[in-house]
Specification:
single chain, four-stranded antiparallel β-sheet, 3 helices, 4 strands
């Protein structure tokens, strides 16, 4: 892939260390899709409950660790695992709840 094509797809050499760190997080938590936004500077993870954004990789790691622990304890509990208030992250797009009684 050429430098121009790589930059077009958001993998500029200036951010190579952040992409490598995102790849390490992805390897550690394969159940989530993890990436670093070059334009925003934020860290993202797509979970079964929605999209999570964090300002630092450490904040994202804390959230992912909590989510992974919650899913390991009870795989039948379908409530959202975290509000994000305790980990410094925010849930951008929560999964819609199914309508009951219609």
């Amino acid at each position: 892939m050429t430098t121009v094509a790589a930059a077009r797809w958001g993998r500029t050499p200036a951010h190579a260390d952040r992409h490598a760190q995102a790849a390490r997080l992805q390897a550690r938590y394969p159940q989530f899709v993890i990436w670093h936004g070059e334009h925003t500077g934020a860290w993202f993870a797509m979970t079964t409950n929605g999209l999570i954004e964090a300002s630092t990789p450490d904040a994202l790691t804390r959230t992912l660790r909590s989510l992974a622990a919650a899913s390991a304890v009870s795989r039948t509990d379908r409530r959202p695992a975290l509000s994000g208030a305790s980990t410094g992250t925010r849930r951008l797009f929560p999964r819609p709840r199914p309508r009951v009684g219609r």
